From TrEMBL, chains A, B:
TM helices/strands, residue ranges: none
Compartments it resides in: Cytoplasm
Protein name according to UniProt: Phosphate acyltransferase
EC number of this enzyme: 2.3.1.274
Family: Belongs to the PlsX family.
Listed GO biological process terms: fatty acid biosynthetic process; phospholipid biosynthetic process
Gene Ontology terms, MF aspect: phosphate:acyl-[acyl carrier protein] acyltransferase activity
Pathway participation: Lipid metabolism; phospholipid metabolism
Catalytic activity: a fatty acyl-[ACP] + phosphate = an acyl phosphate + holo-[ACP]
Keyword hit for Acyltransferase: yes
Keywords recorded for this protein, A-Z: Acyltransferase, Cytoplasm, Lipid biosynthesis, Lipid metabolism, Phospholipid biosynthesis, Phospholipid metabolism, Transferase
Subunit comment: Homodimer. Probably interacts with PlsY.
């Protein structure tokens, strides 16, 4: 199996990318190899400096880079030899099994939509993220930013996508799905969440447990938490700031430590025909390594085939 | 000055209400007196048990109680002698200067809308809450639940209402106002937040600092954070759960301690013709006391007159 990494993506690229790829190659030895995609001038000196360990990494040149501040769609179209465009082409051609990047999030989404494309039947793919749980490992939160506004049918599909990820990648049997809302009672919320509630209540693919409130993010009520990308993005970034504050204060314990994005890997794009993961902009080597391991786990689980099968029906 | 309290509101009423009223009467002695509204059978034995301290409290009987689970509008209309209905009638008649209740939030909102009514020019009143700040005392977040969906013009008005509260009640000169969004750049977000951004940019009553992300809630970027009631409610309840978790773990410091709702008082309803505050359902005597002190501060500040003056123009 081959897991590709955008060597030019992220605030500390290419150094952190190469260092993270080396860590992952060691962890995944015998199960998957890592393919680094990037500018030869930037990456090859780092590989030479790494010595014999670099032999485990495959290098694929890409002459261009999409910067963090660039307009996603424009940059993706114009820079066809960028590391992100080359990564998606290899993914789509089946030359690699997953593609990971800590680069421009918008360009990663554009590439997903235009190269590997949404699974037939999926209205809009979602970006998922992970929530530390007090009494278990992690829950899934989606969408966290791909779709600021969501129709009820989109929220319903996110519930299905999140359930499949929880089941096949995280190994949670019959994952409980909750709908983020401003009150527990049926009938609470916006017209969209009210309608989504009615769809989820009767959806046979989803173990729906009802509405959740902001206080239920870390408890046992649900393994999969569904919301629009606006709400999910606010939750995700608020959680990150809580971690930063606690870390700065030196107030750390195993639960708080799970808020550290470095520990979780990246944010998978769910509902597309291949395995793509978006990493945090300020990814460290550890974060890059965990994102690549997560890419392997996704590919190994066959999650995309499960999604295709579910949405075919 | 007279500050009224719904003696029947909250999970621990009437005991916590009476105990909180006694604490507040002591703190506000010489500046304001407390008026307790509730069922004589329930409240008077508690006043007798309190001994001479109870002499500072005025008691007004109300034969009915609106329970936490009741339908707000229906209950408010049918129970005209409930403590909430009596409280709002006294507030509207000018017999008290503020009315506070830890009871049914929806009924408190209904009473605000139908008895004291929105200020002329205010489209929809908002419920405000307080965010602990790392480098200052508190910021204001609104709306936190009165309006699940908000038109751009409503978000603009929340910015004005929050600015006035920050200025006149919290004493923050030229409060900075931020718009909660999923990215910092102008143009990010939903059609509603995009349009609200354009309105706020040119609003002369507001010191607008632009979009905020979930990670900016506790930093210095803004004193007033504007969002729809869905997002605000999720943020508020997530913050409460963070406090509960930290408290349970014994991980406490002065910043985390400010997340405790007991320390802040309640949630003022802004944009109505009088001072009304909604308390947390599980209010302790300390929370009740701080809500009453906050009611005094609101009345003392003349915030409602400032709001009326701003929205008249």
């Amino acid at each position: 199996m081959k897991i590709a990494l955008d060597a030019m993506g992220g605030d500390y690229a290419p150094q952190a990318a190469v260092a993270g790829a080396l860590l992952a190659a060691e962890q995944l030895a015998g199960r998957a190899s890592i393919v680094l995609i990037g500018q030869a001038d930037a990456v090859q000196p780092l590989l030479q400096a790494a010595g014999p360990a670099a032999a485990a990494l495959e290098f694929v040149p890409a002459s261009q880079v999409i910067d963090m501040g660039e307009h996603p769609a424009k940059a993706f179209q114009q820079k066809q030899d960028s590391s992100i465009a080359v990564g998606y082409r290899m993914l789509h051609a089946g030359e690699v099994d997953a593609f990971c990047s800590a680069g421009n999030t918008g360009a990663m989404l554009v590439g997903a939509m235009f190269t590997v494309k949404p699974v037939a039947g999926v209205m809009r793919p979602a970006i998922a993220n992970f929530l530390p749980k007090l009494n278990s490992e992690f829950g899934i939160l989606l969408d966290v930013g791909a779709n600021a506004e969501c129709k009820p049918e989109m929220l319903e599909q996110f519930a299905e996508l999140g359930s499949l990820y929880a089941q096949y990648v995280l190994g949670i049997a019959q994952p409980k799905v909750g709908l983020m809302n401003l009150g527990e009672e049926e009938g609470k919320g916006t017209p969209n969440t009210q309608a989504a509630y009615q769809l989820l209540k009767v959806n046979p693919h989803v173990n729906f447990v009802g509405n959740l409130e902001g206080r239920d993010l870390f408890d046992d009520k649900a393994d999969v938490i569904v919301c629009d990308g606006f709400t999910g993005n606010v939750i995700l970034k608020m959680a990150e700031s809580i971690y930063d504050i606690m870390n700065h204060k030196g107030m750390m314990d195993p639960f708080i430590a799970k808020f550290n994005y470095e520990a979780v890997g990246g944010s998978p794009i769910l509902g597309i025909n291949d395995n793509a993961i978006i990493g945090h902009g300020s990814s460290t080597p550890l974060a890059i390594c965990n994102m690549l391991v997560q890419g392997f786990q996704m590919a190994d689980s066959g999650i995309v085939d499960q999604i295709k099968a579910t949405f075919k029906s």
